[in-house]
Amino acid sequence: MIFFQNVWWVLVLLGIMILIHELGHYWAARYFDVRVEAFSFGFGPRLFGFRRGETDFRVSLVPFGGYVKMTGEQAADEDAPDGPGAADPRSFLAKPRWQRMIIAFAGPAMNILLALALLTGLFLYRYPKIVGSDGPAVVGYVAKDSVAAKAGILPGDRIARFDDIADPTWEDVVIAEVAATNRPVPVVLARGSGQLIVTVTPALDEQNGVGSLGWTAQHEIQLGGVSPDMEAARVGLRAGDLLVALDGVALRSTQMLLALLKEGQGKPVELTYSRNGEVRKAQVTPRAVGEGDAKRYMLGVQLSPRVTFVSLPFAEALRESARQNYRSAGLIVQFLRGMVERRMSPKNLEGPVGIARLSGDAAREGLATFVGLMAAVSLNLAIFNLLPIPILDGGTILMLAIEIIMRRDLSLQVKEAVFKLGFVFLMMLVVFVLYNDISKLLPG
What we know:
Helices cover about 45% and strands about 25% of the residues. The protein has about 450 residues and is α+β, with helices and mostly antiparallel strands.
């Protein structure tokens, strides 16, 4: 059942992405009076559709993708004496190069606008804000034997400077940490009334493919839910309670709590928590789950940073949407750059199988989560299509830019060779992400 739900929701998500992307190309082509022969949702044989004017709007067999076929779009069509684009002033190649660049850019531009619109609409209704997230970056947890631990960083340290960023928020730190994978970074820490200067090198996390120092932000721990058959429910804990301390040790983050429970090996602990401003205590015995290195000790609660939900006015929602999309785009670019420089692993690239799983999970969590995922996928699709790879929109734009600089067309042989190279690269990428998806599903 879950499999079919995942398939349905990934078709919905990708369907909207593809439709919006191809509409960008279509509208731009029509604006510049280019003849559009076909608007296809999907690739391969035509299943069904309708004709409106000179355009065949169709649904094709393979749903993962789409295209807008314009007269004379291929150089071979234009050069053929009896080809469909020969001497046709409405063919794609008959238009000035700057117009062709706009047509190529219009698809990714629509995906960027969609990501902006989706988050803006979401924030008008429901904007999640982690309490304290816009304040100073304070370390809440340092993993044992991590890069941060070996550098002497402790929970409670405030990050006064990370690389060249003064007084960063934790969001700034996360972005800079990813960008600095396998590169030494100076960090200034405020501890008590003094300062500590260290140099750290974010190590590649094999699980997610990006750099990590092994630390997390300080945040309040709020209970999102309580399992009725576990210890937490027995002692009276409720959703919304704030966890304050464990055996007298102040809790600075969810990861810190989990680490302390693991160190206790299932022994009874005294949990201090706050409810409506009133501090309470309870004796709880954690339950062991799993075996070996995967063994964990559970209280029977859902843990999360304390989050407040507010509705933003339109102007503020638009600004926040633009800021988050800009930040996300920066992370994507930094990740791609890290892969090219071989400082980051491509293992966390998601293909159709991974996106289907994420789509189903997001849909089951609710509309807000699904809309957030749709915005992220739309932005990723835009950036991917703008990469200077032949066969993608970015490759088309690059070749047109080269022709503008050269003030002449590239030869047909060069264009065909570049197109074939891009096609081979794209097929290799498809095979890799499918292999990556499948390998994540296999045990071990």
